[in-house]
Amino acid sequence: MCLVEALALVVTALLYGLELADGRAVDASTASMSLVVCLIFAILLAVPAAAPRKSALWPRTPTLVWNVLLLPAARTLTATNGIWVARPPAVVAVAGVVASLLAPSADLTDRAL
Length: 113
Prior knowledge:
Layout: H1 2-22, H2 28-50, H3 60-81, H4 83-102
Helix pairs in contact: 1-2, 3-4
């Protein structure tokens, strides 16, 4: 799910870049900052997406946290832009939460003492 979200953010960043290049951006500074933010979050999401290929055990928690935080964002999109804009992020967020909950947890021994 993180890879799908990262790719969607890269596509969104490319769309902002095209908007800036064509001069269609209403506010160039807002569009450029949105482009930068999309790229930063795409990179941050690519890290947990690539972790299972290296047999890492930690990507379950950041995936769960990211997708839980995406749910209120989808709710805000419903109130501001309508249900059709909010539906894709909401579906991806719910799928990400379910996928991360179904992922196997790390079976680590307690070595606290």
